[in-house]
Amino acid sequence: MNGIWEAGFWGAVGGSALVLGAALGWFLALPQRLIAAVMAIGSGVLISAVAFDLMDEAYRQGGLAATGAGFVGGALVYTVANIIVSRRGARHRKRSGGQQPGPEADKRDANTGLAIAIGALLDGIPESVVIGLSLLSGGAVSGVTVAAVFLSNVPEGLSSSAGMKNAGRSARYVFGVWVGIAAISGVAAMVGYAAMAGASPALVAGVTAVAAGAILAMLVDTMIPEATEATHDYSGLIAVTGFLGAFALSKMGG
User: Fold this and answer.
1) End-to-end Cα distance, the chain
2) Are 126 and 50 spatial neighbours (Cβ–Cβ below 8 Å)?
3) Which string of DSSP letters, residue by residue, matches 63-101?
4) Is 89 left (phi over 0), alpha (psi -120 to 50) or beta?
């Protein structure tokens, strides 16, 4: 399979977990504590992926300077973009309770529904880009990266769609958002692969670190608040199980 198409395929696979999670959140009346627990597991998975897959690989290829600059830069870019969409109504886009604005908010501010969709897309792009970048290292996609993205995307889609449903959003809106983002995830992986093909290891390392910084910032800003909302004292322990699972996967895959 041509590299760019392989990147697109695996990016879409990772993104498809958002649709799976959205379906679970829409069709199943799950307790909020269970949704929060699943989100805590996903948080642990992403922390492990950032620490032991993305940052370690970036450091190996480009050294500390490129990795550190990219990591902080990615977090900064994500934070600025997140502030913009949050102020337009997307602050609670990952929340499963009654925090999300519903269609009535769209009547007061036509940008609210669009901001939620853009915010969800903002969260998913860095994860997809690193899937494409992983093909550049060894000529084959990193199964650990794909697995980590998939496992973390399920609770993201689950929690967000449950919150959208509680806010009165239509099925057309909810599944339109997540199917669209799943498709764009494939494109983002293709762009990541095509843009960096032939680039120096230091540049690839820097871009990988940028994505890692954005993912960690997204995790703290949008996933952890939902994870701790209902699980309270147990959220850290639950996140540790997700971290350990992803860490074990990375070692078995290595």
Assistant:
1) 23
2) no
3) HHHHHHHHHHHHHHHHHHHHHHHIIIIITTTT--SS-S-
4) left
172 by Cβ neighbours in 10 Å (0-12 / 13-18 / 19+) ranks as exposed
For residue 28, the one-letter residue type is: L
Minimum mean pLDDT range among 86-95, 219-228, 241-250:
86-95
Class of residue 208 by CB neighbours under 10 A (exposed 0-12, middle 13-18, buried 19+)? buried
Q: Give yes or no for a contact between 26 and 174, defined as CB atoms under 8 angstroms apart.
A: yes
Return the C-alpha torsion angle 249, 42, 19, 168, nearest 10: 170
Phi, psi for 239 (deg, rounded to 5):
-60, -35
Q: Closest by alpha carbon to 192, among 179, 218, 210, 176?
A: 210
CA distance 135 to 5: 11
C-beta separation of 19 from 157 below 8 A: yes
CA Rg value for the chain: 17
Its pTM surpasses 0.85: no
* C-alpha span between 100 and 135 (Å, rounded): 37
User: Model confidence over 231-254: pLDDT tens digits?
Assistant: 777 888 999 999 998 888 887 765
CA distance 216 to 174: 25
Q: Nearest 5°: CA angle at 118, between 116 and 122?
A: 115
